[in-house]
Amino acid sequence: MFRCSARCCEDAAASMQEVQRCIERCHAPLARAQAIVTAELEHFQDRLSRCSLQCSDQAKDALDSGGSEPRVRGQLDACLATCGEQHLRLVPAMAKKMRDGLANIQQ
Q1: Residue ranges of the domains in the chain?
Q2: What does DSSP assign to residue 65?
Q3: Residue 62: CB partners within 8 Å, gap ≥ 6?
């Protein structure tokens, strides 16, 4: 990418706009790679967040129904641990999806 950008600057006959477009073309694969990784991580984080919010809602409902705080805290901790375990199992598939997406980027 940096060599590509440097080559863009070597053309003394190129206008500023041409050099800028050339540099943008050099950086495009990196931008696509960043977008792939960012989208996957955001999706993963959103799913984990929804799971933890569901645990919090269940704990609040249990407290509102008269559940004891120590018992509800234990249930909340168990629910959050389950969320974590479930989402850890998703990491290999997420990593594969990112690798596949990155492999499709033309350099």
Answers
A1: 1-104
A2: T
A3: 71, 72, 75
Contact 78, 51 (CB under 8 A): no
Within 14-68, residue ranges assigned H as helices are 16-64
Q: Is 15 helix (H, G, I), strand (E, B) or coil?
A: coil
Q: Which contacts qualify for 48-55: CB closer than 8 Å, 24 or more apart?
A: 48/83, 48/84, 48/87, 51/83, 51/86, 51/87, 52/80, 52/83, 54/79, 55/79, 55/80, 55/83
Answer for the pair 4, 26: CB distance below 8 angstroms, yes or no.
Answer: yes
Tens digits of per-residue pLDDT, 14-63? Answer: 899 999 999 999 999 999 999 999 999 999 999 999 999 999 999 999 99
- Return the structure tokens found at 51: 């799971």
